[in-house]
């Protein structure tokens, strides 16, 4: 099969196109012929080595976390899927590799593809959908009438999280460039703040939940718009000791992460704010719940561009510009 790999961590080196044998499948796995793969900022961060402390991969490595495709083989213990089923998944952290023609996926990480989506649309969903679900439903426990602030509303996570927060009954504020305002209003945003010309800290107050996806400065500003007892959930760091426990990190990594997050955790505690770092995980059951919302028309995918498989490097470079509105997808078949 054809795949795109990295041979070493690098900011400048492109992915290399290689020919590999088909992946093995374990007893609980499905072998998926990939029709489309989503591209995420996480792929770029892994490529540069930003996460090598907490995700130590063996190189060479096929990048890619999101896939939509067709089951072509099943392990002997697989019960949920059969050959010919159309599925999608955010594969687990230590089994990534969707920038390829085939991938082996544990059946617990996959779900049936929404019937009303194309393969390209479906491939845009898993990572951002599960991120939004785990922030807003699982950890944020967002309820009707609450106020939620979602940063960078025009990005992949933002466009999905806006729709999910509105479905949960929240009043939603977000930040974006002026050209994205109309799109975000259509997705359900009640307040869209032009980050280039306005300061959200001066415009928002008494919020229940913040989804932080930006830098340290924005993280601290977000803390100041929350009410006492509010929740600040960051998908961009800094990681916490709780996260270190979740990934069963070494004692050294636990110390490093504790130091990195010490300041923000102390400030949050002083303000009676719950701070947590979320590194989303694969979860086929949650993805199945997301499928229901998509098939009901409650949440719609937002796809900016679709690149050919041969142009995988260009797709990743486009994501790295930060200008994508919604998701970027690679059409593989």
TrEMBL record:
- For the Enoyl reductase (ER) domain, which residue ranges apply? 13-330
Under the heading InterPro entries, the entry gives: ADH-like_N, ER, GroES-like_sf, NAD(P)-bd_dom_sf, YIM1/Zinc_Alcohol_DH_Fams
Transmembrane domains' residue ranges? none
In terms of Pfam families, this protein maps to: ADH_N, ADH_zinc_N_2
SMART domains per record: PKS_ER
GO MF term set: oxidoreductase activity
Top-rank lineage group of the source organism: Bacteria
Q: What name has this protein been given in UniProt?
A: NADP-dependent oxidoreductase
């Amino acid at each position: 099969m054809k795949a795109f790999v990295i041979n070493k961590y690098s900011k400048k080196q492109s992915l290399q196109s290689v020919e590999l044998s088909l992946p093995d499948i374990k007893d609980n796995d499905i072998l998926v012929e990939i029709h489309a793969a989503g591209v995420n900022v996480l792929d770029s961060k892994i490529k540069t080595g930003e996460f090598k402390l907490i995700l130590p991969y063996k190189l060479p490595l096929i990048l890619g976390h999101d896939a939509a495709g067709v089951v072509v083989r099943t392990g002997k213990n697989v019960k949920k899927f059969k050959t010919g089923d159309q599925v999608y998944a955010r594969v687990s952290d230590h089994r990534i590799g969707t920038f390829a023609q085939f991938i082996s996926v544990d059946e617990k990480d996959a779900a049936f593809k929404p019937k009303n989506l194309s393969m390209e649309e479906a491939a845009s969903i898993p990572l951002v959908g599960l991120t939004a679900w785990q922030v807003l439903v699982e950890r944020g426990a967002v309820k009707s009438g609450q106020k939620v602030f979602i940063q960078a509303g025009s990005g992949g996570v933002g466009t999905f999280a806006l729709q999910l927060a509105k479905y949960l009954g929240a009043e939603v504020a977000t930040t974006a460039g002026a050209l994205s305002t109309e799109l975000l209003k259509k997705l359900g945003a009640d307040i869209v703040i032009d980050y280039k010309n306005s300061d959200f800290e001066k415009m928002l107050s008494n919020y229940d939940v913040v989804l932080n996806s930006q830098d340290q400065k924005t993280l601290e500003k977000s803390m100041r718009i929350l009410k006492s007892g509010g929740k600040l959930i960051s998908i961009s760091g800094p990681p916490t000791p709780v996260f270190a426990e979740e990934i069963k990190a070494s004692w050294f990594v636990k110390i490093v992460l504790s130091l990195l997050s010490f300041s923000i955790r102390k400030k949050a505690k002083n303000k009676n704010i719950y701070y947590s770092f979320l590194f989303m995980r694969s979860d086929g059951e949650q993805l199945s719940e997301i499928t229901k919302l998509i098939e009901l028309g409650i949440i719609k995918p937002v796809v900016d561009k679709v690149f050919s498989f041969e142009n995988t490097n260009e797709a990743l470079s486009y994501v790295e510009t930060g200008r994508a509105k919604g998701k970027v997808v690679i059409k593989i078949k």
